[in-house]
Structure formats: C-alpha cells, structure tokens
UniProtKB/TrEMBL annotation, chains A, B:
Residue ranges occupied by any UspA domain in the UniProt entry: 23-162
Family annotation (PANTHER family): ADENINE NUCLEOTIDE ALPHA HYDROLASES-LIKE SUPERFAMILY PROTEIN
Protein name as catalogued: UspA domain-containing protein
InterPro entries in the cross-refs: At3g01520-like_plant, Rossmann-like_a/b/a_fold, Universal_stress_UspA, UspA
The species this protein was found in: Capsella rubella
Single GO MF annotation: AMP binding
Pfam families recorded: Usp
Length: 175, 175
C-alpha cells in the first residue's frame, strides 16, 4: 500500500573526545532524534543512509606518538583508520537492526562538507539530518560548522539537530 | 504503546498570486511534503501545528481600488482579512482531517519571522517546517526570506522545503 520508504541520509562521525572510535555526541543525537521523532514505530516507512566521512589529516595525526619509519607503518595506519570507521558504522547499523529499520552505511574520505553534498547529489535522499554542536558565533570562527554548509549547499532539505547544553563537553568545540 | 505524537509546526501563508485566499505554492508544498515523507501512514504518530501569520500592511493594501472613507470600511477590511485567514487554515485543516492526522491551527498578526520564532518558543514543537521559494542570492536581496531567518533563530530544528523549478511562477518572487 505504502510508497517507497522515505530515504533519510544521516551524516555520522567519530567523537573528538577519545582515541577510541565512539560516535560524536552530536551525530549520535541526530541519529537518535531521527528514530524517536521521525521514524517512530513506522520502521518499514523509512530507510536510513548512514554516511561517515573520514577526514584524512585528522586521522593521520591521531596518534602523535607514532613513528612512521617504513611503508608498513603507513599501511598499518590506513588499516587502523579503516577499522575505526567500520567500528563506528557498526554501532549505528546495529541499532537500526535492533529496531528493524532498513539502512545502508558507507565510508568516504575527504572534506565532510564537500563529500556530504556530493553524496546527496549522487543518492538523492528525501532529506539529510546533520548533528551540530550548537556553537555560538564566536566559537564558530575557529572551528567552522559542517551543518551550516550543508543547509546552504546540499541539494535536498536539511534538518540540523543541536546537542543539548547538558550533553556538551567542557570544551564546546569537542564533540 | 507509542509516546506522545511528534509535534510538527508548519508555517503557512497566502499566495501572492491571486486576490483569493489560496495557499502559497511553497507553503502547500511544505505541508504536502510533511505528510508524504514524514507522517506517511503513521497518522497517529504526528500532530501538525498550523501557524498562519498575517502581514498587516500587505493585507491592508490588497485591494488597491478600495476607498476607505469611514470607520466601517476599516471594520469591513478587518473582517475580510479574518475571513481570508480562516479560509486558508480551513484548506489545511480539512486535508488533515481527510487523512486522519491530528492538527491545531491558528492565526497571528505581525512580522512572520518574529511571530514564528515566538510561537516556537511558546509551543515547543519537535521541529518546524517552512516552505521556501528557493530564490537565488540576487533575488533574495529584494524580497528577504522567512525560511533563512527561522533556520538561524528558531529554537527548534527547522527543515526548509523548496518549491521545485516547475512549480515556480513566472516571477519567482511570486508564490
């Protein structure tokens, strides 16, 4: 009876808080908000497209103590990054399976703003959900915000979900 | 079993195209998009809060041929405006009843940007849907956009639904 499921792209990323691949506070919030407020009990009516963009520079310098002395060290780093990305997606995919909502998940490398807008053009989701740290104008000068860029440039409707004040870490630029 | 319905505020306004109180192309689009892509068959899971903001100056000069020669003329004008607003809301409320989704609708007067943000603070919807003409930066200089203001200032998540190119009237500032 129902038409094709509504396709919701959700951009997810790793937390900046720990060395371990936990989801960022804001992307976890955006994901949970989507399930609670949009999908609700209508699990067959929606399909989540979970996009994780790995920022290469940041990942490369994640372990400041590492010494890169041979091509093997770089290969190991790449494998470690890949494992972290997969671990992150597993977290979201597992949640989708638990509640029975269809999903697809994939990893891309590059600048999150460009990659997200590119993937929107490629996959034409019905809308895009992005988390936001909810930074003030002064804080934004230093860190930039992926969500604002997407609202302006993504070729589909975009909904930005802000972290609540209680969820914010001590340094609000962290996530 | 399910928690409280998701409360979706939808800002609706009259078309600039006719003297008759038709809904604007973009607010109709935003409303229909919400039903098709978000509510879907889960009509008990959502409640629509339909807000119509009447812009007083525009309404007052709607009939350029009218002559206001007595207090009665102004009273009649106010009654005509009220009737137009009610007629507009009736269109949306009727659609909600046809498909069985709960709704509330009301009219406020004033500047749409301020009134919408005020009503968001007052009623705390889960998110706000606003239509947009999808104007380019050059066109926007002259007409301003309610949707951009709401995205920045409303104290809840906001999703902007653009008119498609085929739906746009000859003058894209019209709606």
């Amino acid at each position: 009876m129902e038409s094709e499921p509504t396709r919701v792209m959700v951009a997810v990323n790793e937390s900046t808080l720990k060395g371990y691949p936990h989801a960022s506070i804001s992307s976890k919030k955006a994901f949970e908000w989507t399930l609670k407020k949009i999908v609700r009990s209508n699990t067959s009516g929606f399909k989540l497209l979970l996009l994780h963009v790995q920022v290469q520079d940041e990942d490369g310098f994640d372990d400041m103590d590492s010494i890169y002395a041979s091509p093997d060290d770089f290969r190991q780093m790449r494998e470690r990054n890949k494992a972290k990305g997969l671990h992150l997606l597993e977290f979201f995919v597992k949640k989708c399976h638990e509640i029975g909502v269809g999903c697809e998940a994939w990893i891309r490398k590059g600048d999150p703003t460009e990659v997200i807008c590119h993937e929107v053009r490629r996959l034409r989701p019905d809308f895009l959900v992005v988390g936001s740290r909810g930074l003030g104008p002064f804080q934004k000068v230093f860190v930039g915000t992926v969500s604002e860029f997407c609202v302006k440039h993504a070729e589909c409707p975009v909904i930005t979900i802000k972290r609540s004040a209680e969820e914010s870490p001590q340094d609000p630029a962290d996530d």
